[in-house]
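Summary of Year 1 activities. Much of the first year was spent building the evaluation harness for sequence design. The harness presents a backbone, in tokenized form, and records the residue chosen at every position. We chose the following record to illustrate the format because it has been used consistently in internal testing since the harness was completed.
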């Protein structure tokens, strides 16, 4: 089926090209020279500035302004009040028109752009983006200029807009290559054109407005990988371009992505969110469900595309020029207690507000129609509960949302979703997909009603005058995650059986309450302090017999010194680590947001171990086996098995003479002791030998830091 779709897509692309070529030939003679002069006269000339920031835009039809006609709403941005520029169109197209050009010279950035796909003049998001970037520096006289160019193409999947596209002919389909041409031409202009003397070229990043076709083709599962590759290619090629021209080095080239909410279901939107969470150079600008649409995919009129561009420009300015961090309105922690779900949000500006976007408001009466439960949805595998009537409200702190369920849920895999509705009656290809503003007419839509209080109105001279609210992104988060882990401790491990001895439990020495808080360990999540082992875990038999308590940490994906959350676990004889409560075959983590984390295991007298590369934590993690995986820090080898090094009695992250002396001082003592390295309940010469044989062993390479 996929092969058929690829061939079908190729045929459609070629058909569109041949039709487009005919239109281009007819259109190329329409604009007369005197008309060019008239257009040029309307553009305000600006004095040169010292820096020109180049921002590119690619994607599908929304990136090119499809149906952004002035007849549908708003007038074109046909004058340029700032020192912002675009490249001219190729010679066979009407020149001096729109920001999707590829040839010199640089000319003032204006709309409209003639869209050959729909045979209309349209406004792209490019101008609103660039002019907002300038106005945020100064509403009248910015200190820099913006070169803004677009190279998107409607209806194209990632396979076509990427660096090595699926179809390579005709040249108009090589969108990535066209973007590289824009970089080269813009740089050439700044470097050689006397009009830009004493100015520098500063590449800022690339904006991606894309995803609809890949959603329809079933590629959402691969889309995060697509975006990582896309960003890496743009960055690598930009770095190489600057080196070739002896320009100052850059370390990153950010990619700014809008979340695709115009077609359900929500897999594509979630993939884009995941990419931004796990790649420091990918920034999610925000969702797009809040805009008014002409149809199920395209925005309505020139002003709506300008407004989209203004929202994009606000974030590009913040990240690229102001060098500030950016996260969209999104959940940062989810607490689940009986029938109450509390979601703590990262709120960019001010407080949370429940509001209706314009397409949900009656244009005559002003009455607002809200999404069901404001766009929130609870779901589990057996649909055991749902959100209670009137069960969604803003928390007292104005940074959280509280959601009450109608009864205690009993189903597995519980999740909370937002703007990610699952409508069985609405097909992805249906016009009720739903982007018309049909919510006010009773049709089901994908979207939500949560925004922040960023009342900033874009102060560009040609701005839309609408507040640049940050609306909450679509998300689908598990309410808890059961992480299945296996690990081996060197001390009690028996290479002959492949199991660890269980004498602490057999001799009644294993504490019923977690021992780590009394040993001076601190917990990020204090609710773990004092955890009790359940009888079914304590009295398990065979390979499930308990060995000892351990700590399982989730660490920040970049800064491994930052512990995000810690859970206590019980290590079993075969290496499984289970939740002390017995509710899971793994260790249950609450309040997590789906993303990549490092996993770390700590024990009271063994050196800790961590993953070398972060792993994705969600409800489908599977088993991570520290005893066999190569994605772990340095461990003791027993043939093919790896285990945590034994002997760190004083917990200073190195095994040395002090550890041996402590063991010697406690020789012949019986009990649950830190000096009992092999966990048989007795401190003796065997423990002392284990520690001494591991002496001078540092804390598992450089990541074993206190």
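For this record, the design step produced the sequence shown next.
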């Amino acid at each position: 089926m996929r092969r058929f779709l690829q061939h079908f897509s190729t045929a459609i692309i070629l058909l569109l090209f041949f039709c487009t070529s005919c239109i281009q030939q007819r259109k190329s003679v329409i604009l007369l020279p005197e008309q060019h002069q008239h257009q040029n006269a309307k553009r305000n000339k600006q004095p040169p500035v010292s820096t020109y920031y180049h921002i590119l835009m690619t994607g599908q039809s929304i990136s090119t302004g499809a149906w952004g006609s002035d007849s549908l709403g708003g007038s074109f941005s046909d004058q340029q009040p700032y020192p912002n520029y675009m490249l001219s169109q190729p010679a066979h197209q009407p020149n001096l028109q729109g920001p999707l050009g590829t040839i010199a010279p640089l000319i003032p950035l204006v709309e409209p752009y003639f869209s050959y796909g729909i045979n209309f003049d349209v406004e792209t998001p490019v101008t609103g983006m660039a002019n907002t970037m300038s106005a945020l520096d100064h509403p009248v006289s910015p200190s820099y200029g913006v070169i803004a160019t677009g190279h998107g193409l409607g209806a194209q999947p990632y396979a076509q807009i990427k660096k090595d596209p699926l179809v390579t002919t005709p040249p108009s389909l090589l969108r990535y290559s066209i973007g590289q041409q824009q970089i080269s031409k813009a740089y050439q202009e700044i470097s050689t054109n006397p009009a830009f003397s004493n100015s520098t070229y500063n590449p800022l990043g690339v904006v991606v407005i894309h995803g609809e076709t890949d959603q329809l083709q079933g590629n959402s599962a691969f889309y995060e990988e697509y975006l990582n590759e896309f960003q890496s290619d743009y960055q690598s090629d930009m770095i190489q371009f600057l080196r070739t021209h002896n320009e100052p080095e850059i370390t990153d080239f950010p990619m700014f992505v809008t979340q695709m909410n115009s077609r359900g279901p929500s897999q594509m939107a979630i993939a884009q969110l995941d990419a931004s969470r796990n790649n420091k150079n990918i920034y999610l600008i925000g969702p797009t469900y809040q805009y008014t649409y002409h149809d199920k995919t395209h925005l309505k009129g020139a002003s709506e595309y300008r407004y989209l561009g203004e929202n994009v420009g606000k974030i590009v300015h913040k990240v690229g020029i102001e060098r500030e961090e950016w996260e969209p309105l999104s959940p940062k922690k989810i607490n689940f207690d009986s029938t109450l779900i509390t979601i703590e949000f990262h709120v960019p500006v001010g407080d949370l507000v429940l509001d209706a976007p314009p397409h949900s408001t009656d244009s005559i009466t002003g009455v607002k129609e809200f999404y069901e439960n404001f766009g929130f949805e609870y779901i589990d595998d057996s649909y055991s509960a749902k959100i209670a009537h009137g069960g969604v409200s803003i928390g007292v702190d104005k940074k959280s949302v509280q959601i009450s369920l109608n009864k205690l849920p009993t189903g597995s895999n519980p999740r909370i979703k937002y703007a990610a509705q699952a409508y069985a009656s609405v097909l992805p290809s249906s016009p009720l997909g739903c982007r018309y503003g049909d919510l006010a007419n009773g049709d089901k839509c994908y979207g939500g009603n949560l925004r922040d209080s960023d009342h900033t109105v874009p102060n560009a001279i040609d701005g839309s005058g609408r507040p640049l609210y940050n609306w909450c992104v679509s998300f689908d988060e598990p309410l808890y995650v059961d992480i299945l882990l296996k690990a081996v401790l060197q001390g009690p491990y028996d290479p002959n059986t492949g199991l660890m001895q269980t004498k602490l439990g057999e001799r009644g020495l294993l504490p019923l309450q977690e021992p780590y808080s009394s040993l001076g360990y601190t917990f990020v999540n204090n609710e773990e302090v004092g955890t009790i082992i359940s009888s079914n875990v304590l009295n398990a038999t065979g390979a499930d017999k308990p060995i000892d308590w351990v700590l399982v940490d989730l660490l920040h994906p970049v800064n491994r010194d930052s512990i995000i959350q810690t859970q206590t676990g019980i290590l079993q004889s075969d290496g499984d680590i289970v939740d002390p409560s017995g509710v899971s075959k793994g260790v249950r983590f609450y309040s997590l947001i789906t993303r990549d984390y490092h996993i770390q295991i700590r024990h009271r007298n063994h050196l800790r171990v961590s993953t070398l590369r972060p792993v994705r934590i969600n409800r489908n993690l599977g088993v991570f086996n520290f005893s066999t995986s190569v994605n772990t820090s340095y461990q003791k080898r027993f043939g093919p098995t790896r285990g945590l090094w034994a002997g760190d009695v004083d917990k200073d992250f190195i095994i040395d003479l002090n550890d041996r002396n402590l063991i010697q001082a406690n020789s012949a003592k019986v009990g649950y002791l830190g000096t009992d390295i092999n966990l048989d309940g007795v401190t003796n010469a065997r423990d002392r030998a284990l520690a001494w044989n591991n002496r001078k062993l540092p804390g598992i390479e450089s990541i074993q830091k206190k």
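The two ends are 53 Å apart (CA to CA). Quantitative recovery figures across the full test set are reported in Table 2.
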